[in-house]
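User: I'm preparing a small set of examples for a lab meeting where we compare how different chains pack in three dimensions. I only have the primary sequence for this one, and I'd like the structure in token form so I can line it up with the others. Please keep the answer compact; I'll paste it straight into my notes.
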Amino acid sequence: MENGGGGDIECNRNNKEKEGSEGGGGSYRYWVREATADAAPLPLPKKLSPQDHLHSQPNNLGSAWNTAGTWEEKNLNNWATHRIKDLLLSVASLEFSGGKAEIAQVSKCSGDAFLVIVRNKKRVGYTYELTLKIKGEWIVKEEKRMVKGDIDFPEFSFGELDDLQMEVQLNDVKDLSEQDKKTISQDLKLFLQPVREKLLQFEQELRDR
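Assistant: Understood. Below is the structure token output for the 209-residue chain.
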């Protein structure tokens, strides 16, 4: 009799544990979705190429160290001085009613040019002054006369080329009449426009740097 009672107690304990595992408050269930033929494929890892890596970099205008694009100033004097000289010496010779002349030398080209980056925005500027040596020949009193002179361009800055000024000085022309001097000086002032065009080209190249 005692052995039969113990078997009933053990059976009841097992039944309660089973019920607790199936219906208790701490139980949980989960589902696993099986892949089907029409399901979207899972993304595959892709190795980035060096070119992809470059495209992912921020487009900073400054130097490599200036990744935030904060204040940075670059001195462009050396490039600007050489570039202005090259452009001005490429100006073609001019022909006038009584003669012709050309730019022989850029004897003075002094100033400053710079590029500034502020908050990843670029600004450029410059201030220069020039002196050009001119040589040419004119017909004076039915004779061919060699004439040399200087054209001075007082200080000018970025965006001011519409107001570019020039001054002409003739050398060794004491034996010329005042009228001949005036005529030759007026002829040389025609260099203003081609010089302005070359300086405008310089400004555009400065912007593009």
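A couple of notes for your slides: Helices lie at 2-23, 50-55, 77-89, 178-188, 192-207. The mean pLDDT is 81.

User: Perfect, thanks.
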